[in-house]
TrEMBL record:
UniProt-recorded name of the protein: Cellulase (Glycosyl hydrolase family 5)
Signal peptide (from-to): 1-21
One Pfam family from the record: Cellulase
Family: Belongs to the glycosyl hydrolase 5 (cellulase A) family.
One Gene Ontology MF term: beta-glucosidase activity
Residue stretches making up the Glycoside hydrolase family domain: 84-344
InterPro entries: Galactose-bd-like_sf, GH, Glyco_hydro_5, Glycosyl_hydrolase_5
Amino acid sequence: MKLRAIVLALTALLSTTAAHADGFLRAEGTQIVDDSGETVILRGMGLGGWMLQEGYMLRLGEIGQQHRIRAKLVELVGEERTATFYRAWLDNHTTEADIAAMAVWGFNSVRLPVHFNQLTLPVEAEPRAGEDTWLEEGFERIDRLLAWSKAHHIYLILDLHAAPGGQGNDLAISDRDPAKPSLWESEENQRKTVALWAKLATRYKDEPWIGGYDLINEPNWSFATPGKGNGCDETENKPVWALQRRITAAIRAVDANHMLIVEGNCWGNNYKGLPPAWDANMALSFHKYWNRNDAASIAGIVALRESYGRPIWLGESGENSNVWFRDAIALVEGQGIGWAFWPLKKIGFNQPLEIDPGAGWAAIVAWMTGKGPKPGADAAFAAMMQLAENSRFDRNIPHPDVIDAMMRQPHDPSARAFAPHRLTDSPLVVRAADYDLGPAGVAYADTVDANYHVATGGERVLWNNGTTYRNDGVDIARDADGVPYVTDFVTGEWMRYSIDAGKGGRVAVAIRARSATGGRLALGEREVALPAADRWQELTIPDVALADGSTALVLRAVDCADCEVEKLTLAPR
């Protein structure tokens, strides 16, 4: 489907109350409300990877931090070309087109992860110790993002994702260099953090489309064992609260308008030792990854909301399957909690937009991770610039299934057509990978449909083993021409296909499938044998009745260990 068609289709599917900002979002009791006092459920995405790169988003998880990635690129192509790449990346990755699309899809907010070095120098690079050099270009990028957000009625939440020195032992999320003092080990880093928030608040104090200030993303620091641990066992967290109180005081000296968002230790989730609320207009954030989506998973933070008397916000979540997304959003919205999922785009298939890295990026990844030779400088620079260009919205691969799982399915669990399948007098080809949109158990069934490794204590698992095309449990691969097909289709799994049958009638159905060990498939109750072979085979069910109007076919794996299905062809009789 072309991007425009996808956007139009999703517009028809989705409906939300448009945000308005004649005044400011604020905390009122345990709810976030707008200027008229109406409760606002924030539905947003985080712009991860734009102003702060994390290695895994570029297939460089083994490298991790942005400063290490940048150093390797300098080694590869030189400082001047690396600077050119980063400017192109910043220019292309997030533009007004991204924000406009988010508004069309039904989102009402966007969370901007800020790297401090876009706005000020590191303490060790300041010409005069104890002073702050401000980088206007970074502020102007935020200004432009704010202008786009205003134009499309999207609240912009500023998130200090990489604080001076870095705020935790999960190094990549804050681009921390462990050879230098962290945020918690340096008073000067803390002073600069406070000064940066004062600067931001001074600049944006009168901007109602700024939805709030997320003060420090995911502190994860064990004060009892500095340099080790992520603060999950801390019982008081005094430095975490003390610094956020200092930031609050600096903001309130210039800005009485904006809601402040506090995060606990342990990636935002350890609130032990939290002092009484120190500001009337503050909310508490929590983050949620890879656990169960049941009441127990959020019981602690919901109880804190009630006892503390302040709103809570799921400030970050994601990196999972559509099943997990749908269930998590339904869970938190059922408790009146807004959310921001992560990220809007990256290299990979499980978010609204996918960046195609281009053919040359794999060679750079292989060299950086010690798995391949060093590419030539010219070829590497061309690949870098192709990646930067492909990060732009009009070059992204949209994933309407992810958007549907986030925006429609928490409220409407019915199956909907993924692609139009209209029966005419000519044969209708239905790709197996184009099964319906909808929750597991409604649109499809698969043996693995989400990753719960935090809850199980086990290893991370894949849901779509092919990691391409769609973000459900159905396993999808691509052939040499890039055409998607269903793979690892095993006993008990099934997929549903909505068909516009018009006046109805009878059709012959040919199923193009293969299995090295053989098996049995079924269309509805009509079973067909699949002989063992490595090649594609046509399995025919000669006479299938279709009711008039909208109907559905269900393809089942009756007895399969390794079945694969490319397509179904419906030929009117």
